[in-house]
Amino acid sequence: MVPFASCLVGATLLAVAAPVIATRDPTEQSLKARLSPPAFLPRGNPDYLLGTDHLGRDVLSRVVFGSRVSLGVGLGGVLIGTVLGSLIGLVSGYWGRGVDETLMTAADIQLAFPNVLLAIAVIAVVGPSIPSLVVVVGLTGWVTYARIIRGAVLKLRNEGFVDAVRAMGGTQSRIVFRHILPNCLAAVIVVGTLELARIIILESTLSFLGLGIQPPTPSWGGMIGEGRGYLDTAWWIAVWPGLALLLTTMSISQLGDWVRDVLDPTFRVE
């Protein structure tokens, strides 16, 4: 757990302190220095620690600033998915009947479409931009929250403490938001940490396809897409952002497993 926690802390620090850590402007071009190998290779340029891309841009600076994009879009998407999915799950599970059937049918319809294809279709209509990307990736994840919260609410709504609040004259909204929702937060936190990794990968996939973050703004997926044609001659263009993406998502997944074990002891393996 410690190595992965260190990677996640490192990625967070890169995102927060990007202007301080980055050695150059990530969009600054220098054709004289294009495709310079990393500084530690025999023909490496000491001015570019991780080398340069096909336009002479500093790969290190682009990876650092790319962490801002990936984590920012990921956190924004998780927030949207959490709020929307939790509200739908609460309404569906507590009121049930026709409302439950309608909302769960809508969830089934969305599940019928692969997330990547759904995101591509929406972005093709509204156009690629950071705000639209955050909304789109957030909307792809609400179903997971809704189904988990709905299952928890179906169990909690008949518990004794809910009946007691109802007998004391508690309103429906008070029962749902003051007594049922707090008992579902553990599940929401666990799902949120796991969904963060999925959303970061989805954003990178869309950027790789040219439908996510648009140039010259650096993003890990976009850098991998730009470097795929240079793997034989300049592997560092795609390898460094790919490694950053791999370590970050693996660290987040490990964090999610740890949070699950802490919040729900029944998952612990002795």
Task: Briefly say what this structure is.
With 270 residues, this protein is mainly alpha-helical.
Keywords summarizing the entry:
mainly alpha; MetI-like fold; 12 helices
Descriptive report:
By secondary structure, the protein is mainly alpha-helical. It has one domain: MetI-like fold, CATH 1.10.3720. The protein has twelve helices and no strands. The protein has helices at about 1-15, 20, 60-95, 95-110, 115-125, 130-140, 140-155, 160-165, 170-180, 185-210, 220-225, 235-265. Helix 3 packs parallel to helix 7 (about 140-155) and helix 11 packs antiparallel against helix 12. The relative contact order is 0.15.
Largest sheet: none
CATH architecture: Orthogonal Bundle
Look at the structure and give the mean pLDDT.
84
| CATH topology-level fold name | MetI-like fold
State the total count of DSSP E strands. Answer: 0
- Structure class: mainly alpha
N- to C-terminal distance: 16 Å
The number of helical elements comes to: 12
CATH homologous superfamily title? MetI-like
General form: elongated
Overall structural domain count:
1
Oligomeric description of these chains:
single chain
CATH class: Mainly Alpha
The value of Rg in angstroms is: 22 Å
Series of H and E elements: HHHHHHHHHHHH
* Beta strand %: under 5%
> What helical percentage do the residues reach?
55-70%
Low-confidence stretches: 266-270
How is the topology of this model organized?
Elements: H1 2-16, H2 18-21, H3 59-95, H4 97-111, H5 115-126, H6 130-139, H7 142-156, H8 160-167, H9 172-180, H10 185-208, H11 220-227, H12 236-263
Helix pairs in contact: 1-3, 1-12, 3-4, 3-6, 3-7, 3-10, 3-12, 5-6, 7-10, 8-9, 10-11, 10-12, 11-12
